[in-house]
Amino acid sequence: MTKQKTPPMIALTPIALGRTALSQTAQAQIAPSLRERLKYWQELRLLTPLDRHFALSLCDIEGLDNHSSEAELFMLICALLSRQLSNQHSCLVLSQIDLANPMMEECYRAPASCSINLSLTELEHQLSQFSAVGQAGDNTPLILDTGCLYLNKYHFFETHVAHKLNRLAQTELIATSNAFDAGTLNQVRQQLDCLFPAAENAQIDWQKVATATALTKALAVITGGPGTGKTTTVTKLLLLLQTQSAMNIKLVAPTGKAAARLSESIKDSKAKLHDFLCAQLSQQLSLQLKQAESPLASTSSTQSSPPKKQAQGQMSLDFDHTVVENQTGAENQTVADIQTENVNPDSSSLLALKQLIASLSLIPEEASTLHRLLGVIPNSHKFRHDEHNPLRLDLLVVDEASMVDLPMMHKLLSALPKDARLILLGDQDQLASVEAGAVLADICAGLKAPASSAAQWQMRYSHEQALLLEALTGEKLTRYIHPQARLGDSLCILFHSHRFKGDAGIGLLAAAVNHADIKAIRQVWQQQHQELNWFEHQADSNSAQGKDALLALSVSAYGDYLSLIADNKRQFEITDASALHSPKTIIDSFNQYRILCAMRAGEFGVDGINAALTQALKQRKLIDPKQEFYLGRPIIIASNDYNLGLFNGDIGLILQDKDQPTRLMAHFIKADGSVLKVQPARLPSHDTCYAMTVHKSQGSEFAKVSFVLPPKPSTAQWQLLTKELLYTAITRAKAQFYCLGSQPVFERASRQVTLRASGLARRLWDE
Ligand SMILES: Nc1ncnc2c1ncn2[C@@H]1O[C@H](COP(=O)(O)OP(=O)(O)OP(=O)(O)O)[C@@H](O)[C@H]1O
């Protein structure tokens, strides 16, 4: 270990005496050592106990004299690094340290404040001299890389994720349009045209471009806000891929709830796509028949004809399972049924349609959680699938990718087989993952439009990729050519929301918040959209009018599922099980409404709102919370229990057991739609869930959402109030959004952007 003889590196500011808020230790001494300051910062909650112990342990490992200025600098930097990791950053960016007030104490001359009397270059040099600090690839506890200090493990995760994503992005499945023979290029174009018919407006169909992107690259990242058609696009893409050659496709999402939603969305998309293709087929057939001037032969038979091999042998498809809803109102038929002698079965457009319809059944519908896919090993942080035991699949689709943290992305990419493709879906503007990193945001970072641009995002293609995508889609993309496209060739952002029409309040508010556009935010609220409702926090703390209004609304909104439970109770009393509402119906009804809080603790946090609403529902005799697990109590699981199959974030209800109505059981709906019943006493740690945090609501949607902001946020609370939090809360609502807050808090939060320190964006876009 090399020790440097340098002037004092940390200037210790004498403590201010006589301040009541000081710890006794801090008050008693004029110039406390850094060890004492660490303790004091922990008392002030500027550090966690873990941060302090991390700093002390590393100083011990380094073997420094505790009172030396080197030791003090090292401890301080280690504490700062640990604090960054506790705040979900991947590293400590040295240039972001406020050298004059590194601990960022609110009062500059706060009792334990200190400053670092070194330039940034000197600081970096000093740090590189410690034996615990190494360079990329070293086996040291800490790594200093390009001005960022990492815990070795996080540095490894980050470089590995960057390497894997870059490698996947560079894996060209089709490099240029010349790679196709003319027939194949035409076939793919025709299929794309068929799935994405030209719209009347002249705008680029980004869904079509995204699909083509994923046909050409082993990595495709399709992002966009709610309802922009990510699932619709990926369903069409999977269909195209399955028509090319049958693949082993797996669908995953980070949580059980998100996986269940993905399954539902894919099913819904498939059904819509089936109807759409059948309508197209019907149209084509009518056209051909008209041309042949011959009426459609009788199609009344509902029997499936034996599958017909195509005459020219170009395709040998089994159309047996392909059912067509005839527009003329005839019964469902197979495609084979409605072939007639008068129709040319080899017409390329007909064949393309039939091929697509036949392949629909090959698109998987069941989605699992990432944990289940990777194979949890009880009591271990490792998974069954890793680089030594890769997953068995050809294509992996990961939904809600914004929720995937850096360590999980590392594990997922490690387990991905060499030749597999990866498709990431998500909303890059949503809250970042609960744990370290902001992987999806870093992946999209290179598409951030320059500040001067009106657009927020701008596509970035290499010359070759722009031409290839143009050849496949017919869309004009050359204006997006960028000299350093890097990951841009694999990315596509969908802009147009099909859920929120142009003038719908929720969509407008979400967009205004996303752009941190205060003027637009005020305008949207002033326009008094019927789907947006504001409850003002009362300035007078004795009056709880805004909160009362929210509670009254919530009692009424939750009244629906509670009345279904009351119905069942009556049915059980008269022992008539025939008219019971199923647990799924009741849980679906409960999921129509949710209160989302910015905070966990306090009167306006999850804890306070849950307690107040429990009381309000009790007063209205809608619940009887005499015992802990009372009928109708909503539960959210707070930790994983692999044996029970319950995961952090799973939501269920305490309901009467159909088989033994005197017994109350926690009921959950699993991703495959089945009901899981668990004895309340066996539940892993859990909370009541009339209200939940915005963080926990990621991956879920509700018809109505009430969002609660604290009236007077503390300094610590302000750190959580960001535009991503607001945007995520707003976009959980499909039909109605209510907000209990105050204008200054809402607006200041809209201006605060989540910044997660990480080197991933640089590794993906600049190196
Ligand atoms: N090009 C389109 N034209 C018309 N409707 C569309 C189009 N694309 C998607 N939709 C419809 O918009 C709705 C939302 O689409 P989809 O579920 O694919 O979006 P998403 O981005 O996956 O949504 P979420 O954010 O909820 O995951 C669906 O009803 C879908 O049928």
TrEMBL record:
Domain RecBCD enzyme subunit RecD N-terminal: 44-150
Record field: compositional bias (Low complexity): 297-311
Record: residues binding ATP: G224, G225, P226, G227, T228, G229, K230, T231
Any single GO BP term: double-strand break repair via homologous recombination
Entry superkingdom: Bacteria
Chain segments carrying region Disordered: 292-315
Catalytic activity field: ATP + H2O = ADP + phosphate + H(+)
Domain UvrD-like helicase C-terminal: 689-736
Alphabetic keyword roster: ATP-binding, DNA damage, DNA repair, DNA-binding, Exonuclease, Helicase, Hydrolase, Isomerase, Nuclease, Nucleotide-binding
A cellular-component GO term for this protein: exodeoxyribonuclease V complex
Molecular function in Gene Ontology: 5'-3' DNA helicase activity; ATP binding; ATP hydrolysis activity; DNA binding; exodeoxyribonuclease V activity; single-stranded DNA helicase activity
Record-listed E.C. numbers: 5.6.2.3
InterPro entries in the record: Coronavir_polyprotein_1ab (IPR050534), P-loop_NTPase (IPR027417), RecD (IPR006344), RecD_N (IPR049550), RecD_N_sf (IPR041851), UvrD-like_helicase_C (IPR027785)
One Pfam family per UniProt: UvrD_C_2
Record bears the keyword Nucleus: no
Family stated for the protein in its record: Belongs to the RecD family.
Known function: A helicase/nuclease that prepares dsDNA breaks (DSB) for recombinational DNA repair. Binds to DSBs and unwinds DNA via a highly rapid and processive ATP-dependent bidirectional helicase activity. Unwinds dsDNA until it encounters a Chi (crossover hotspot instigator) sequence from the 3' direction. Cuts ssDNA a few nucleotides 3' to the Chi site. The properties and activities of the enzyme are changed at Chi. The Chi-altered holoenzyme produces a long 3'-ssDNA overhang and facilitates RecA-binding to the ssDNA for homologous DNA recombination and repair.
Additional observations: In the RecBCD complex, RecB has a slow 3'-5' helicase, an exonuclease activity and loads RecA onto ssDNA, RecD has a fast 5'-3' helicase activity, while RecC stimulates the ATPase and processivity of the RecB helicase and contributes to recognition of the Chi site.
Subunit structure: Heterotrimer of RecB, RecC and RecD. All subunits contribute to DNA-binding.
Protein name per Swiss-Prot or TrEMBL: RecBCD enzyme subunit RecD
Species in which this protein is naturally found: Shewanella denitrificans (strain OS217 / ATCC BAA-1090 / DSM 15013)
Designated gene of the protein: recD
